[in-house]
Amino acid sequence: MFRLRFGFDIFIGQEKFASEDVSASPWRRHPPATARIRPEGEAVSNVRVSNPRLKGRDVLQEKFVVVDLETTGLSPRNNAIIEIGAVKFEAGAAKYATMEALIDPEMDIPGVITGINGISNEMVEGCGVIEEELPHFIEFFGGLPLAIFNAPFDMGFLRHNALKIGVAIDNSVIDVLPLSRKAFPALPNHKLTTLKAHFGIRVDQSHRALVDCRTTLSVYGECIKKLFGRGAFLGR
What we know:
alpha+beta; globular; single chain; Nucleotidyltransferase, domain 5; 18% strand; six-stranded mixed sheet
């Protein structure tokens, strides 16, 4: 069952960014995209899905949803989602709404995956399947842009599973991975764990969906500060 919660603060290094005031916002209002429900009689395979990637100053969105998935493997066709996390960001907001859910993948979770994220078969036993849980997240996304670290991976799983329930997720996407490469090219690599350590981002663990959403949002903030100026992340 999904959990919807309100309230956490984003810390970047030693600075708190969540409760700052906002004025003269440079943030872009991207034309909203909506998840399109398949018309009756239209085959799911005929639903065209397009997720425009936001670039340049278009990544300065005043409101978006950070999304992260944990999966049983790398292939949307052969593997399954086992956890979804989402954080709804709004420039200047003191707190952000979050949503998370463990998903029953209806297949065994490989031991190597449990070793990475700690999610076991026992943890997902009795949880909702993706057809039950994904609609809640699609409603949470609305038409907002989705900020994702390594977006092609997560969007591949989201699109594949959304089409199974007759929905096309057309939201625009901010891919934080190439944004980090552009902002900080000198780093040895741009893994999320490397960026977390580099920026001193304080979260409990990695490789859990909601925790990685928080890390991704903090990395996004550092990238925006570097590329567009210190006040840009605060909407100034």
